Amino acid sequence: MLFEISANSASTAAGVIFFATFIPYLFIQTRYNDLSRGTKMAAALLPNTGMALCGQIIAMFEGTGFGLQWSTIASGTSPDDEMSMLDCLVMLIIDGFILLIAAWYIEAVRPGDFGVPLPWYFPFMVCVIHTNR
Q: Is residue 130 part of a domain?
C-alpha cells in the first residue's frame, strides 16, 4: 500500500472534515437575508452547512410564533426569503447520494486488506462483455 491509515489519523481527519464543512455556515448566517436562494442551496451541498441551514430555518419559523407546519414546509419564513425547509430537505437527500457515491468509489479504490483495488479511473473504463459463439 502507498501509506497506512491509523485510527488516530482517521479520527483527526474526520474531525477536520466535519468542522471544515461547517465553516461556510458561519459566513452564511450573518448574511442570510442578503444571499440568493441558489447561493444558499449551493452551500447546502456541504452536509453540515445544510443541517445548520435547516436548523436556522426551523428557528426562524419558531420565531414567527407559528412554527414549521406541513402547510408551510414549501414556503420561506418571510416574503423576502425564497429558501424553504423543503429546499433544505431536498439538498440533504442530494448530499446523501453524493456521500453514497463517494463511499462506493473510495471502497472500490481502497478496499482494505480483503479486496482487490480497482484503478482510480475505473468509472471511466469501458466494460467489454465477451461471449463465446
A: no
pLDDT digits (tens, 9 = 90+) for 36-88: 999 999 999 999 999 999 999 999 999 988 899 999 999 988 888 899 999 99
* Nearest Cα residue to 105 out of 84, 90, 123: 123
Would you say residue 131 lies in a domain? no
Give the pLDDT confidence score for residue 125 in this predicted structure. 84
Residue 117 carries which DSSP code? P
Other beta carbons within 10 angstroms of residue 9's beta carbon come to 11
Percent composition of the chain: helix, strand, coil (DSSP 3-state, to 5): 60, 0, 40
Q: Domain total for the chain?
A: 1
Q: Does this model's pTM top 0.85?
A: no
- pLDDT top residue among 106 and 4: 106
Cell of 101: 457515491
Note down the domain range covering 17. 7-124
